[in-house]
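USER: Note each token:
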Amino acid sequence: MADAAQSVTKGSGGSTLPRSAFAIIFWSSVATAIGNNGLISVLPLIGRSLKIPDEMVVAIFSLSAILWASSSPFWARASDRYGRKPLMLVGLTGFMVSMTLCGAIVSAGLRQLAAPMIIFALLLLGRSIFGLFGAASNPAYQAYIADHTPREERTQAMAMLAGAFGIGTLVGPWLAPYFIYPVVGLAGPLFTFAGIAAVMLLVVWRFLPESKRRPEASVEAAEEAIVEEKRPLWRDARVLPFALYGFVVATCQTAQQQTLGFLVIDKLGVTPLAAKEQIATAMAFGALAGLFAQWGIIRMFQMTPRQLLRWGVICGAAGNLLVAIAPDYHTVVAGYALASMGFGFARPGFTAGSSLAVGWKDQARVAGAIAAVNGINAVFAPAFMALYRASHAAPFFLNMGLMLCLLVYAYLSPALRNADPAAVTREEATMATIERADESGS
């Protein structure tokens, strides 16, 4: 397997991404996504079993989100300095340690070894380890793929990587109820997810080759040569529209995911443990819809980031509307699946679009920025939960409104409107022709 990892797979566009390397990165992402989504599915059960208020349950992710957003750019720069692989190891280690600690804390709470508010505070701190150190892996994953993938193939590669999130959303909530063991109870899934992360940590350490950037085409080298300054990406007009779009999309998706479990419990009118299968089923249908978008529709129709940015929020808005007006559990599942399909379009849309917008030297930096906006959105989860308690439909109507605003933005913003690999390639070719003409003239 080590020899296979060193072999280079040549794609039609000059890709040098080894198949085995992509597989390792993909399944490492799946392992993290399984744990995070499994935690989301059991957290309502844990919170209500420990008598922790709903807003405080979703707030467990808030400190972690702040740390994730603030540390992601640092880890992205570190991946340029120390390599992609070491940062993946840091991220997986942070995830494993965080899950282990949270499992121990939940076990203590179930045995009433501490008051609910103390358990809440400890869970907040345990989860923050993931926010601080787990953030190291995502920018490294994205930058590794960008290192080896030409522009015209990058949307497909990013969609495949985004599919790891979909698999995690599908498998995590489905597996989590089976990991509720007799002795440790609701802490069982957390310990199991930590064990899965430990296995992937070993696989990455042993079998993943360090990233070696593919030979750059002359037009791409010319593009880097004209970069005049290192502007902060938050003030970079090439990246800011994608970061803003991604932040709003990620906020809407997180809000829907974290309120879904409570909505299912309340819609069915049963105890938290009695609703665990229905919660898992709803999240599984959403994950299947997202995977169908990323691995089926995107690849079948060769969709560009520009198309994904538009269709993503159209489906997302329609799905949230359906959940908001849902009279029963089955309609909630249908709406959640439709919205998840929309997020399945939108995520690779803004991820690939931001990668295409910058040159090779900025790939890690832009990956850090996108990872940051994907994390900071969880800070608003308590506000959505408070809105949910006031009116069960309100968070979903708000999501619908936000995504309709993004649809308008996707048409008005020049950066989002021109998010097309073919357009970028034409620009680079023209730029290179001009530069060659200038050189010959001089």
